[in-house]
Every structure is written in C-alpha cells, then in structure tokens.
C-alpha cells in the first residue's frame, strides 16, 4: 500500500559525498540499465511523493549531515524521508513500511542494522537546528544524530536485509554486479 501523496512529505536522496572508498562517483555507476542513483530514484518516485536529489552540501565534508542540513533548509515539506544514492537494492515496499512506522508523534526514525542507525530514515524539518548543532560539535555520524534526537528505531525484518546494502568499495560493487540479475 502506497502512502498518500502529501505536500508535507518529500523524499531526498543524498548524493553529495566524495565517494573516497569507491574512488569514483558512486551515484553514476551503472547496475543493469540504470545508475545506482537511478535505481534509488525509481523506488522513491514509485511512492508518488516529491523526490529531490541533494548533490551539493551547504556544509561540506561532514558526511551525510551536510546533505541533511541542505535538504532540511531547502525543503517546504514538514517531513523528509532520506535515502542514500548507494543503496540500489532498496524497494518501494520497504520505504512504505518506514514511512508508516514513523507515525506523527516522533521527530526522527532511523533504520537500525548491526552497524547502528542508518538509511533510510525520516526526519521532521523542525530538527534542523539540532542537526546544525551536531555539526558544530563535530559529531557528524548518523549514530550520533539518532542519539541526540532520541530517534525511534526501525529494525527491519530479515527479508529486507539485501535492500539495506549500500555499496562503498570496489569489492562491494563487484559483488553487487554479480548478484544483480538474481536479486529481482
């Protein structure tokens, strides 16, 4: 079931990173007929919500928090679902589950994995000042942000595990290319 389109909700795909470990722009790498960013965008657009790609961070060199600040400052929506451009396995069903779990009483909900807080996650625009404060303190990890926001945690069922894989290194990229046709 798709969430209802709303002007109070948008999706932002973060694609402004340096891709240091990959040594080239991850968002432009092709997996099948689309780029990694293209796969993420297609999953996001299928929800019928506004989708934006954040390529230039207002606050550079602070990981995803720079993109988060950029998205929240430029958004007209009350709630933003954040995706990473390097998660080409993500599917609309999982995104819908994350949005439903967010509810209306929280300021933040992060997907939890064995590595801690991660993508996809949902933030209210109202947390912008707290994200900026995190950056000012030099605490730029998503884990630190989730802790500071006292965020809710969504622990996806096992069946979603592959969708949460992000590709950061050439080895991860090679493995993904080998399994891509079998994944869907």
Helical stretch count? Answer: 6
The succession of helices and strands, N to C, reads EEEHEHEHEEHHEH
Distance between the ends: 20 Å
Q: Care to count the β-strands?
A: 8
Beta strand %: 15-25%
What name does the CATH topology carry?
A: Spore Coat Polysaccharide Biosynthesis Protein SpsA, Chain A
Domain module count: 1
Which CATH top level class fits? Answer: Alpha Beta
Instruction: Tell me, rounded to a whole number, the average pLDDT.
Output: 88
Sheet bearing the most strands, described? 6 strands, mixed
The second-level CATH architecture is Alpha-Beta Complex
Question: Main attributes?
Answer:
184 residues, alpha/beta, Spore Coat Polysaccharide Biosynthesis Protein SpsA, Chain A, six-stranded mixed beta sheet, two-stranded antiparallel sheet, 8 strands, globular, disordered N terminus
């Amino acid at each position: 079931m798709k969430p209802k389109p709303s002007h109070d909700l948008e999706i932002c795909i973060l694609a402004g990173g340096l891709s240091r470990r990959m040594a080239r722009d991850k968002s432009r790498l092709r997996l099948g007929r689309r780029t990694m960013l293209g796969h993420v965008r297609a999953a996001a657009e299928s929800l019928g919500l506004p989708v934006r790609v954040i390529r230039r961070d207002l606050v550079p060199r602070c990981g995803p928090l720079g993109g988060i600040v950029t998205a929240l400052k430029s958004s007209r929506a009350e709630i933003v679902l954040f995706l990473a451009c390097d998660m080409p396995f993500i599917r609309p069903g999982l995104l819908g589950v994350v949005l439903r779990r967010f509810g209306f009483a929280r300021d933040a909900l992060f997907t939890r994995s064995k590595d801690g807080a991660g993508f996809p996650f949902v933030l209210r625009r109202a947390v912008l000042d707290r994200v900026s404060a995190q950056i000012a303190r030099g605490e730029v990890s998503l884990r630190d942000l989730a802790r500071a926001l006292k965020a809710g945690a969504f622990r996806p069922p096992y069946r979603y595990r592959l969708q949460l894989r992000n590709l950061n290194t050439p080895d991860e990229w090679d493995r993904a290319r080998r399994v891509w046709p079998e994944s869907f």
